[in-house]
Design brief:
Rieske Iron-sulfur Protein; 7-stranded antiparallel β-sheet; alpha+beta; 26% helix
Length: 433
């Protein structure tokens, strides 16, 4: 058990309208985040569709800790620290698979996929008091919300649904676009590496201010080639005059809602080669149900950010995986919809469209993150501004009790730092059981 009852004080680094640059550049702060943030709150680990059967597993991280997310023989989900209690070697070295036992390659200690030690070669060498029941893999607390698996080492936290709060309703809206369908992320990954701090990614995820500038070349190309009204054209010009809204959902969770700008999803999607043939086939096969089916091809018009590391962008999941204070892995997961009444052509189109932004838009963001990291290294300029729309009188509380604002409002960044400060200043204990 790690006792963080006397936390460092970070209040001087976060003010109402700005944060200090060292929050992005200081190695000691980063190391503390990997404990207090990634270990101390509900952190996204995996999706149940990646473990569809009993005995399946995937290898992941919890901050910097190597972990295993597994199903046991009865299908129950477990989170295990990927570290042999003997000499410390990782026991699982495959990214995914199916097994009833994890066996450490070093000395062949073996563990069930629920973490119990069941095999030790030449066990008599440890004497009569050797107790295998005390030497299993470390187990983290795991909870699941509609297929999304989260874990924590903080056993004092309220349950996952409490952490999600009103974000759970937004997540429901995202998953229920096709009634009765189930989301699957077993469609491959788009993996990127950024030479920047992980929080730069989070800052950007609820920022409606940058797209019309950072992604201008992509958007203008689309407009020149395909005309107005194509996907994301609403971010050009003064987006605060439009219909998008940004919401603080509490507990560091935020939501940028672009849906009011979308009149017809399918007709505003970025064109794809061969789409007319697919659409004609679906209209012939489904009749009046073809248009709703085509609509789920296009991105959801939702940017939902679950503190600290899960971003739902359009139809995709983006997971933030910190590596060092100034390097971060970004993993994009494409999603499909599993439903008996949804033809495979819909997911074929949906998959093609999801190749678009990670390939042509995300590089713009990565370049900005890396240049931010370079600029933040300048010690004479200490502060990062987070005050946009604080004093314009445009923020309001919506019918759900959530603080709402215009898309370029920096209330999302302020919401993140509020929760960050709570978690970093918390007096808590982290424990693997």
């Amino acid at each position: 058990m790690r006792d963080f009852s006397e936390p460092p004080i970070y209040d001087d680094l976060i003010e109402t309208d700005r944060v200090h640059r060292t929050l992005y550049t200081d190695e000691a702060i980063f190391r503390e985040e990997m404990n207090r943030i990634y270990g101390g709150t509900w952190t996204y680990l995996a999706h149940e569709s990646e473990l569809p059967k009993a005995n399946d597993f995937v290898r992941r991280t919890l901050g910097l800790r190597p972990i295993i997310v597994s199903r046991d023989r009865d299908g129950k989900v477990h989170g295990l620290l990927n570290r042999c209690p003997h000499r410390g070697a990782t026991v699982c070295r495959d990214d995914a698979g199916s097994t009833r036992r994890f066996t450490c390659p070093y000395h062949n200690w073996s563990f069930t996929n629920s973490g119990d030690l069941v095999g030790v070669p030449i066990e008599e060498g440890y004497g009569p008091n050797f107790d295998k029941s005390r030497l299993g893999l470390g187990k983290i607390r795991v909870e699941v919300y509609r297929g999304f698996i989260f874990g924590t080492l903080n056993h004092e936290l309220p349950d996952l649904e409490t952490h999600l709060g009103t974000a759970a309703r937004r997540l429901d809206e995202w998953m229920d676009r096709w009634p009765g369908g189930k989301i699957s992320v077993r469609n491959g990954q788009h993996r990127l590496m950024c030479n920047g701090n992980w929080k730069l990614v989070s800052d950007n995820s609820h920022d409606g201010y940058h797209p019309g500038y950072s992604h201008a070349s992509l958007l203008r190309m689309r407009k020149d080639r395909y005309g107005g009204g194509v996907d994301m054209q609403w971010v050009l010009g003064n987006v605060d005059d439009g219909l998008q809204r940004l919401y603080d959902l509490g507990n560091g969770n935020t939501f940028l809602d672009q849906r009011p700008e979308i009149e017809r999803y399918w007709y505003q999607s970025a064109p794809m080669p061969g789409e007319d043939s697919y659409a004609a086939t679906l209209r012939e096969r489904l009749g009046e149900r073809a248009e709703p089916a085509l609509d789920v091809v296009m991105g959801s018009g939702m940017n939902l950010n679950i503190f600290p590391n899960l971003l739902i962008i359009g139809n995709q999941l983006q997971v933030i995986q910190p590596r060092t204070v100034d390097s971060t892995d970004l993993i994009w997961y494409s999603t499909s919809i599993e439903a008996d009444d949804l033809p495979p052509e819909v997911n074929a189109l949906r998959m093609r469209l999801q190749e678009d932004f990670p390939s042509f838009g995300e590089p713009d963001d990565l370049a900005n993150f890396e240049e931010c990291q370079a600029g933040l290294s300048i010690p004479e300029m200490e502060w990062v501004v987070t005050s946009r729309h604080m004093d314009t009188g445009t923020e309001y509380v919506d019918g759900n009790g959530d603080l709402a604002g215009l898309p370029t409002d920096e209330l999302g960044i302020r919401a993140f730092w509020k929760e960050w400060l709570i978690r970093m200043n918390a007096t808590t204990k982290l424990e693997a059981k």
